[in-house]
Amino acid sequence: MSAQGRHKMQPLSIGLKYRTRIGLWTVSIWTGLVGLVNLLSAVSPSLPERVRWLMPVFPFPIRAGGHVFAALTGFLLLTLAANLLRRKHIAWLLTVTLLGISIASHLVKGLDYEESLLAIVPLIQLIVMRKTFTARSDRPSIYQGVRVLIGALLFTLAYGTAGFYVLDGRFTVNGEPANFGLFASIEQTLAIFFTEDNAGLEPTTRYSAFFINSIYMVGAATLVYALFMLLRPVLLRGDPATVGDRRRARDIIDQHGQTSLARLSLLKDKSYYFSPSGQSVIAYVAKGRAAIALGDPIGPPQDRVEAILTFSQFCDRNDWFPAFYETSTEQLDRYSKLGFQQIQIGEEAIVDLTTFTLKGKAAQNLRTALNRSAKAGYQFKLYESPIQPELFQQLKPVSDEWLKDKQGSEKQFSIGWFDEDYLQDCSIAVVCDANNQVVAFANLLSGYNRREVTIDLMRHRLDAEKGTMDFLFVSMFQHFKEAEYDSFNLSLSPLAGVGAKPGARRVEKALNYLFNHLNQFYNFKGLHQFKEKFQPRWEPRYLVFPSLTVLPDVILGLVRADSGDRLFEYLQLEYVKQALAAFLDR
Prior knowledge:
With 586 residues, the chain is an alpha+beta fold. Helices cover 55% and strands 16% of the residues.
C-alpha cells in the first residue's frame, strides 16, 4: 500500500479508535458500578419475602456464602474496571468470570434479580467487544501470580488450620465451647472465607480475635499481590535484543541513519521494532507502561507512517504507551496526522563549521581560553577508532573523578556512557598537559550520511586549567572544519527554550518551571550557557506521545530509561511525575 493510501485510510481508523474508546469507557464505568452495587448489596439484608422462597432450596450457609461472594466480586470488579481501559486480556477474562459469579451470588443470597440484571449488561458488552481486549500481561508475572495465589491459599488454609488446632478452647461456636480437631480446624478455616457469620464462631480472648483477623489480612494481601502480578504490562528481561536483531538494526541504520541518534540507537540498552516491510527500525526502551523510541523511525521516508502505526499497535498489545523522544520539527506534521501530541523538550545546539571563526569581539573569551591553555602546555589530540586499550587506562580515572565530583552516575538512553565496547568505535578528542597526561576528553559520533560531528561524553579533571573545555571544543571545531565537515552538533540542551513563549501550552510552562527550579540539581542553565558561547543555531526537539493523560507515565519511563533504573533517581522523578500530573489537573 502506498503512503498516500495509508494517509487516506487514517481518518477512518481514528474514528474507529474513538468509538472503541467510548465503548471501553462505558464498559469500565458500568463494571465499576456493578462492583460498587455488589459491595452495598453484600452488607444489606435480603428481602424477607424472597428469602422465604429460597429457604427450601438453599440453606443459610449457602445463602450467607452468596453475601461473601458478592462482597469479594465487588472488590475485584472495582479493581478490574480501570484495567479494562488498558484493554487487558487477563482483565477481560477475570471480569467476565466474576460477572458470572456475581449474577449467581445475587440470586443465591436473596433472589436479587435487579443486581443480576445490572451485571448482565456489562457482561454482554464485554462478550461483544472481546476482540478489543488484546493487551498482553507479562507472562512470567502471570505464572508467578498464579503460583503465589495457589501457594498463598494453601498457606492460608494451613495457617488457619494450625491456629485453630493450637488455640483450641479459646473460641465458641453458636455459644458453645469449641473443640477443634484436625478436620474441624480445616472446616472452620474454610468457613472464615465462605460464610457470612464464620459458622457461628466467636473468639473468647484478644489473641484469638487477632488470629481471626490475621487470616483475613493474609488472604487480602495475597489477593492484591496476585492481581498486581496478573495485570502487569509486559516486561523486558535480560538482553533487550538478540545478536541477530542488533545486526539487522545496524544494517538499516548504516543505510538510512541521518543523525547522531542513529549511532546511539545501537547502544546495549535498546530493543528494536522492525516495520512489517522490514525496511525501517525503531530503537526503544520499555519502562513501566511506556515504550520510548529514541528519535524517529530510521528507514526510507515512504515507510515511516507504517512504522509508526504498527509500532503503536505493537505497544498496545504489550500494554505500553508509545512515545518518540528527540523528534525533529520536520516530522511533527506526520505525527499530528496520526493522532499524536507533542511538547518541546529542549533545543539542539549546532555550530556551523563553514562560518565558524575566532575573529571578532564575540570570540574574545574563546581566544583567551586558547592562550591560557597554550601557556599551560596543553595539547589537543584526536584518536580515531579503533581506540587502543592504553588510552582507556588514561581516560577511566578522568571519567571516575568527574562522576564523583558530580555526585551522580552514568546516564543512558539518549547519551552514551563510559563503556569500552562503545567508545572503541568512536573518535576521541583529548587534552593532554605538559607531561602528556590526559586532563580532559570527549568522544565524537560522525557519519550516517551527513558531514556532521556530534559530541557525546565530555569530562575533565577537577584541577584542569580554567577554560580547558573551551580549548577542547575550539580545537575540535578547527580540526573538523579543516576536514571539510559542515557542522558540529553540541547535542540537546534539555528544557532550553521550553515554555518561554507567550502562547506556550500549559505542560510546556510546567517544564519551564522545572527548568528554573530544578537547576540546582541538574544545572540545565549552566549547560545551556556553556553551549551558547559558541554561537550555535538552536533547533527545537520534541517528545511525541499519545495523549496528555499518559504523559506522566511517559516522563517517568523516560527518566527510568535515562537513569538506568537506579532507585534514587527513580524515586526523585516519581515526585516530578506527581508534580507534573498535579499541574496538568489545575
